[in-house]
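Re-run requested by the PI after the first attempt was lost when the workstation crashed. Everything re-entered from the original request form. Ligand of interest: protoporphyrin IX containing FE.
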Amino acid sequence: MSLRFIYKLLLVFIGIYILFTLTDNYILDHQASFFLEQKINLRDSFRLPVWLDVMYVHVFVACLATLSGAVNFSRGLAWQKRKFHRINGYIYVVSVILVSLTSGYLAPYATGGKLVSVPFNMVNLFWPIITIVAIIHAKKGRLDKHWQWMIRSYVFCFTNMFIHLISSVLYQTGVDYTRSYTIGVYGSIIVNVAIAEAIILYLRSRKSS
Ligand code: HEM
């Protein structure tokens, strides 16, 4: 299978994922009711209207990061429309920073408490750092490294998807919601890192063969 074909398939999948996320959060369940019902022992400072507003911004910038990141992996665009690639790249960086900032507000109220807010905050710290490392490589003309670090950064756009995939499988098999969600958060970070390294290895092996 050619890389171009795999990329096109991924674009279709990502497009569907973004549409699903927007519909699910803004139309179908725009009060995040089931998710909120599972929260126990919430801090006194929790304010539902503020939480919901931050969550809506969080979802919007997350989808923007997912879309702008996906488009920027097009090698054709990166070579032929450099200005677009650069502007879209900055849209991605700003979106990543905004996802992390909004997540910084949401994390202290995370389902599962401190055990979950700590890994969330680690991602809040490392995701922007990884993204900035990728930009520095681009600025220094190290395009292979730029590509690799952008892959390491981009996989974090699927954090929420993997959290829900892992936690819903566990929840269906009888594990309680809080524990399923906690395992989902840790699991998603491991899966993100593993997928990024597997893609980088695969691309390296294709290049050398
Ligand atoms: C880029 C793709 C992402 C999307 C589409 C997304 C979407 C969402 C949504 C819909 C929620 C509400 C709860 C739920 O239904 O899960 C949420 C909560 C949250 N997200 Fe994200 N998110 C993304 C990435 C991230 C990343 C990278 C972080 C960084 C750590 C993060 C941190 C959080 C936190 C802390 C919460 C609150 C969890 C809780 O209350 O238990 N998200 N996100």
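Saved to the shared folder this time. The mean pLDDT is 95.
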